């Protein structure tokens, strides 16, 4: 006999998607390109480097810096609200 568990649904607030889009638009182009390719389109570091014509090291470094900047932007936005 299997126990039945209630379905848990976690809904993201619609504002969250808007906030992330706005934050992405505030990033400089190179940061935005890497974030979109790596974390939205789910390309690997190698695939991203081939698409952009960069070394894998540059992709990793740029992605790291982009995420730091994205956190700063989103953190500043949450303080305003």
What do these coordinates show?
The protein has 81 residues and is mainly α. The protein is built from four helices and no strands. α1 packs across α4 (56-80), α2 packs across α4 (56-80) and α3 (45-52) crosses α4 (56-80).
What are its keywords?
81 residues; mainly alpha; 0% strand; elongated
Topology:
Layout: H1 14-26, H2 29-40, H3 45-52, H4 56-80
Helix pairs in contact: 1-4, 2-4, 3-4
Q: Helix proportion of residues, in percent?
A: over 70%
Q: Segments where pLDDT lies below 50 for 5+ residues?
A: none
Average pLDDT, all residues: 84
Written as H for each helix and E for each strand, in order along the chain, the element string is HHHH
Briefly summarize what is shown.
With 81 residues, the protein is mostly helical. The chain contains 4 helices and no strands.
């Amino acid at each position: 006999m299997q126990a039945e568990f209630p379905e848990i649904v976690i809904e993201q607030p619609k504002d969250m998607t808007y906030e992330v889009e706005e934050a992405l638009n505030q990033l400089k182009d190179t940061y935005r390109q890497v974030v979109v390719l790596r974390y939205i389109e789910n390309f690997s570091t190698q695939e991203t480097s081939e698409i952009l014509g960069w070394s894998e090291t540059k992709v990793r470094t740029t992605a790291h810096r982009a995420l730091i900047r994205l956190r700063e932007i989103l953190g500043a936005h949450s303080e305003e609200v």
